[in-house]
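Worked example (supplementary).
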Amino acid sequence: MKKPIGVIDSGVGGLTVVHELMRQLPKEPLIYLGDTERCPYGPRTEEEVKQFTWEMVHFLLKKNIKMLVIACNTATAFAINDLHEKLDIPVIGVIKPGARAAIKSTENDYIGIIGTEGTIRSEAYNDALRQIKSEIEVLSLACPAFAPMVEKGLLEGPEARRVVEKSLVPISKHDKMDTLILGCTHYPLLKDTIQEVVGEDIKVISSSEETARETSTTLDIHQIADDDDQSPLHQFYATGDLEIFIDITQRIFKDSQFEVLTIKHADL
Amino acid sequence: MKKPIGVIDSGVGGLTVVHELMRQLPKEPLIYLGDTERCPYGPRTEEEVKQFTWEMVHFLLKKNIKMLVIACNTATAFAINDLHEKLDIPVIGVIKPGARAAIKSTENDYIGIIGTEGTIRSEAYNDALRQIKSEIEVLSLACPAFAPMVEKGLLEGPEARRVVEKSLVPISKHDKMDTLILGCTHYPLLKDTIQEVVGEDIKVISSSEETARETSTTLDIHQIADDDDQSPLHQFYATGDLEIFIDITQRIFKDSQFEVLTIKHADL
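After joint prediction of all chains, the assembly is encoded as:
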């Protein structure tokens, strides 16, 4: 059997990474685990996030994954160094791919970043950006209302628009920022609304799309890409209510065709 | 002393990769070697291209490079597998980064690719694209007039426009292609003209920009990125006429500031 790529997230946000992985790497079988029971991770302590992340990783290691994608910015911010050190499969997070894409995009070195409180507090994006290019000016803003709104399935309409508008006030009128990183995998589900609020001139970078692309590069460097033409079977697990999880999954993948082996509850 | 990234090309086209490397990875010292004496590689045999590429690689290995970027599509098409196998430093070419960016960009899986005769004949882009996504439809076209035109410094104006228009006739009216890969590192110097000819609706992918980004990913995976803040010193070598080389270099880097250690003739 083909070995899958493991994808973990605090909830449903990581499904935007899965969506892009299926589109950009359609030969690769995926196994997704969303910790919907304990979502959001944003307000939790570093220790909690690390512990929960390791619990998810242990669940997936038993499923024989060949690579791990941390499709959650908060978990990436707090746990990736530890995972890199202790796992012997390739591990990628969502922060560096987003940072690299933003550096490629910006023309004036002013980059905005929105994410959960945990991600913003960790300054992981600032570190990733400045490690590559010291000149980058970073405007960062926590948007604690966004992820819970998405988990409830509120993705568009006047209420979503009101929340996005109000949350983005501190950066939406900044006159220099030319690139904005969606530093939470839930946010691509609000991308159209966010783009409208910040205006067409701002290049909005989805860390989900960029992570799918870097997954491709990583598979290639480690020579573990799957290139046979048999359609892959995907597996989905969630720790919380399966009904809401299936509902949101159907909405995210409404225009996609793929084969599912499993959608199940996971006990960590 | 900081170890440099080595960049090789058949001529001056690879300087577009260098330009992007400096922009996206400003802490990294670079050493460039352009085989301007024997350019273009496009019409040469596979054996010749392999031999010339190895001669350039041996020159750079003596300069203690930590990584090799093959900033030439023809050399990538014919020599990268051999280089991967025999070198113990990371090696990246321009083809896979361009292919991955095109897969991320396309919405209907119709991708155009223009390059030298050698690159097109090798079908290296077709292979790279279909290895990742079998559904991709590839329209490929050799544009043998472009690279020599750029080497002569003819980058814009009515004559350049005429050559570009005439060369692109076979694909410029295609009604499905939504993404076009510039599969030769000379072509970003003609990007504005090419974009005008194919129209605004086509996303034009520069393999140079994409290769700079994947260089960043590769440095990261191999943990050999430079992150101290000291300005790097760059080195430039060419096998042919140094006067023309310096003239084109000045035009490509006219808006850039960087420090040069050396611009010298190279004997291979």
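Two points are worth noting when inspecting this output. The first helix of chain A runs from residue 15 to 24. The first strand of chain A starts at residue 5 and ends at 9.
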